[in-house]
Amino acid sequence: MQASEWEKRLEALESKIAFQEQTIEELNQIVVRHELEMGKIREQFRMLVDKVKTAAPSLLAPQSEETPPPHY
Question: Which InterPro entries does this one have (predicted)?
Fold first, then answer.
């Protein structure tokens, strides 16, 4: 191969690498943003679960108050 062909191939590779680096950085920013959003959602879910637990008593009776099934 001639030097100009090598230079063209090298430039093409450099261009691809630059594009990939930009894409990786964009994807990294998206992942970070999603992780922050997931943290907020987890906290909201935890608060919702706590509210439901305090607002609604258990729908199941304690074991001591359970009547035995009819086949006993």
Answer: SlyX
